[in-house]
Write a structure and sequence with these properties.
single chain, alpha+beta, 591 residues, Lysozyme, Membrane-bound Lytic Murein Transglycosylase D, Chain A, two-stranded antiparallel sheet
């Protein structure tokens, strides 16, 4: 997703613009397309998509969708044949927090009923997708961009099976939250586009979780991110944040849900500028008319959502079979009243640690955050068991405790790192006002109850799995030294920055810490000098008359090293003021 309500994304599109011919503003409609029109429109759409497949001989190949979805999904580059819009107009979108009117006989995804004075949800179907289908309210628009995305989904049934099976633990909750807020339930399918319903998804843009929220946006939405916990991956908190943001965008852009979705992807600043440009050109203000002024990814992002909701609306029309998903809550929320070891909690609930992490992907470590939230999501049929077991535990039995006698040279930070906890936790449990500890002092340390291998979805475990995947080339390990960056290390080994980041479960913009171990798959050795006290990193500003040969001679390095360190070509002329990175041996430099 793009920037949050407090920041403006100033990214620009670099693709050639494509103008849509459709005048439909793309808001909510009383009836769902495809599913609610008896056969005719569905057959017409199927024919259009099939015709596009038959024309494949003159179309370039469509790029493959990545597993992350959202900002990482493909952007196809093929000419678009003109297609007559399905309808000329659309009922205006209702204001935020109001439900779209439904035709007689059509039910909401979750029908409200009264029981003992309380509002409860009554199921219409045992299959969640069937029930969701009856409440879809975003109108299908027969736009070339939508048909293109629909064609991809239609021809990749295994992908759909995989994504919707993965959605099973989370989709009911998301639909329920949308219904509770009076928002279109179509938005429950946005994680298909964003993350392919992978709660541990992490993009090269540092977006995380089902809703792919970047750090700054998460902070603006009140999603805490620290060593113990990342609320951007928390199922409950990230859904709250994403829906808050979508409601904010919906109000900002005159109750147009398609513009809100576009803003979720590219940032509200990009959408506002696109609207201004469309107004200046005398064009209507809807997604299809401002689309040429949006980043290229966003031009495909909104059609992708409309395509997946269209397919869910009537899978049979596209010869697609979607998995059956139980139309019932998958998890309950159990209060823990404090920090608890994840392996212990899983044992008490009678499930595996992997199952517990999959429902609580915001937990980064072997235990929940000491500062909360003090609750865990567990399968519905295990909630009572865990609640009863927790009530029998004392406060000091929720994690394992060890007494450590401070040895010469040890610091509180070193102890925290050794026992996989944090310095503030050790200060708190030992009543320390500072980080100063003395030789012989007894320190109480909370730590994991079992071997680290049991915590299968912790940050460390996921990193280890990612680094141990076999890739092309030779596996090498690089220890980060002061002043190094991902770009510099990647260039020195002849690999891409995104490749290097991906191998190490990072994003290109992540901060490197000195001493961090990076795995690199390359047959080329590093061009960086070996660690040596005499070697210093120098930034040299090119002067008038400088050349690579002159600079290499002046600093006693080779031209080849200069080229590798700075990822430049020998064919390019140096420009005065250009900055060059050098590693020089101080003992070889003359005054």
């Amino acid at each position: 997703m793009g920037q949050g309500p407090r920041r403006v994304n100033r990214g620009r599109s670099r693709r050639r613009k494509h103008r849509s011919r459709d005048d439909d503003p793309g808001g909510l409609a009383p009836a769902t397309a495809i599913g609610s029109i008896p056969g005719m429109q569905a057959r017409r759409l199927h024919q259009v998509v099939a015709e596009r497949v038959r024309r494949a001989a003159w179309l370039p190949a469509i790029a493959v969708v990545s597993s992350l979805g959202g900002c990482q999904l493909f952007v196809a580059t093929l000419p678009q044949p003109e297609i007559t819009p399905a309808s000329a107009g659309l009922t205006p979108a209702p204001a935020a927090k109001t439900k779209a009117p439904r035709p007689p006989g059509e039910h909401s995804a979750l029908v409200e009923a009264k029981l003992d004075g309380k509002t409860v949800r009554e199921s219409v179907s045992d299959d969640l997708l069937v029930q969701l289908r009856s409440a879809l309210s975003l109108r299908f628009v027969e736009e070339p961009a939508v048909l293109l995305e629909l064609d991809w989904y239609r021809t990749h049934p295994a992908y759909l099976e995989r994504v919707f099976t993965r959605a099973d633990p989370y989709l009911y909750y998301i639909v329920d939250e949308l219904e509770r807020r009076g928002m279109p339930v179509d938005l429950a399918l946005l994680p298909v586009v964003e993350s392919a319903f992978d709660p541990f998804a992490y993009s090269h843009g540092r977006a995380a979780g089902l809703w792919q929220i970047i750090p700054a946006t998460g902070t603006g939405l009140g999603l805490r991110q620290n060593w113990w916990y990342d609320a951007r991956r928390d199922v409950v908190e990230s859904t709250r944040g994403a829906l808050d943001y979508l409601e904010h965008l919906h109000g900002l852009f005159d109750q147009d849900w398609l513009l809100a979705v576009a803003g979720y992807n590219s940032g509200e600043g990009n959408v506002a500028r696109a609207i201004a440009r469309a107004k200046a050109a005398g064009e209507p203000i809807d997604f299809w008319h401002i689309s040429p002024y949006l980043p290229v990814e966003t031009r495909s992002y909104v059609p992708r959502l409309l395509a997946i909701r269209t397919l869910v609306a009537d899978p049979a029309a596209f010869a697609v079979t979607l998995p059956d998903l139980p139309n019932e809550p998958h998890f309950d929320i159990v209060a823990t009243d404090g920090q608890i070891d994840m392996a212990l909690a899983a044992e008490l609930a009678g499930i595996t640690t992997a199952q517990l992490y999959e429902l609580n992907p915001g937990v980064n470590r072997w235990a929940t955050d000491p500062e909360g939230p003090h609750r865990l999501l567990v399968p519905v049929d295990r909630a009572a068991q865990l609640t009863e077991a927790l009530s029998a535990l004392g406060d000091r039995e929720r994690v394992k405790w060890s007494r450590h006698e401070v040895q010469a040279g040890e610091t509180l930070g070193q102890l925290a790192q050794r026992y996989q906890t944090t310095t503030p936790v050790l200060q708190d449990v030992n009543g320390l006002r500072s980080q100063l500890i003395l030789i012989g002092q007894q320190i109480m340390i909370p730590h994991a109850v079992t071997d680290r291998s049991a915590y299968t979805h912790s940050v460390d475990a996921r990193l280890e799995r990612q680094q141990n995947q076999t890739r092309g080339g030779q596996r090498q390990t690089h220890e980060v030294r002061p002043g190094e960056s991902l770009w510099l290390i990647a260039a020195s080994y002849g690999v891409g920055v995104r490749e290097l980041a991906g191998w190490n479960a990072m994003a290109p913009g992540d901060i490197l810490s000195t001493g961090k171990q990076l795995v690199i798959w390359s047959d080329q050795g590093s061009a960086l000098p070996a660690s040596n006290a005499r070697i210093r990193r120098v930034t040299y500003i090119v002067r008038q008359g400088d050349s690579l040969a002159l600079i290499s001679t002046r600093f006693h390095v080779s031209v080849t090293e200069l080229l590798q360190w700075n990822q430049i070509s020998a064919d390019k002329y140096l420009q005065p003021g250009q900055r060059l990175l050098l590693y020089v041996d101080v003992t070889e430099q003359s005054t």
